[in-house]
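Pair request: fold both.
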Amino acid sequence: VGLILFARERRFLAARLRHDRAALDALRPGCDHEAIERQLRLVERIATGDDAPPPFAAMSQSERFHWLTTPRSTLVQPGPLHAGTTDDPSATFEHLYGLLVDR
């Protein structure tokens, strides 16, 4: 449903998540779309640090990234991590989001 990209050396952390109601209804009819939407928006807020609730607003980018990508028993599950390098994390984020999420 989305992408989180962290580039420590470039001080870049971004998340964008898309809630595809039709796809989710095909997998789980009757799910609580509003609860899912709230969780997805929270992930984006935590990634940016802007308007993030405590204790996330006080965390570093690295701490927020690790919190977001740690597997847990919740509604929204992170996938496996993949490493790479980039000189332009913003452009790389847009490319990967288009390739992997917004197909």
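--- second member of the pair ---
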Amino acid sequence: MKIINYLLLFIISTQVISAQSGSKNFIDQPYIELTGKAETEVTPNEIYLKIQINENDKKGKVSVEKQEAQLIKVLKSLNIDIDKNFSILDFDGYFQRKFLANNEVSKIKNYQLIVNDGKTLGKVYVALDKIDVSNISITKTSHTDMEQIRRDTKLKALKAAKEKADQYANAINQSIGNAIHIQEINNTFRNNSMESNTLNAFFKHEDKSYEIENLNIKSITVTASVMAKFILN
């Protein structure tokens, strides 16, 4: 019995000594908690296009293979790197049953093309329109340094939180110390492609080459929010 009592006394004494000698939890210290926000706009240098070739889009049913050869030839004439920026998305065929005529299989092929600026985009639309390839759409826009842009925006948000903390502390004749907690709250980017009315104006113009310079791509907006706690001295 005495051994058990001595053991309990030793455990309690150890806990008291540890609590007295240990450092304070940050919750027990005066601190200030603020959120910093930042926003970065960047012009996209990767514009993703989807191009579709359908054998039934043309009179006389021009084969997918022949249209593809024309397409590649046109893109090369625009100095587009086919190996790097042009690829096949999917290839499909469907059976057409015809009344009083021979049944046949029609083929559809979808491609992805990446261009780097609005001017090249305009040239692509004009060139493909001349060979009757009009099923083209913008699927997304991006930037080659997007990860770095996101990181830089987060750092700007953290600096904004610190600047705000400094201002608040100065207002009450105090100062801030080290950061004791940092947390990302919300990090997003808004990916906007070309306005539809710009495309409509482009296609309605008789001399399409005239409108090439007006194909402006909207910037990508990257936003970040960071919450930080600083010691309040």
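Observation on the second member. The first helix runs from residue 2 to 21.
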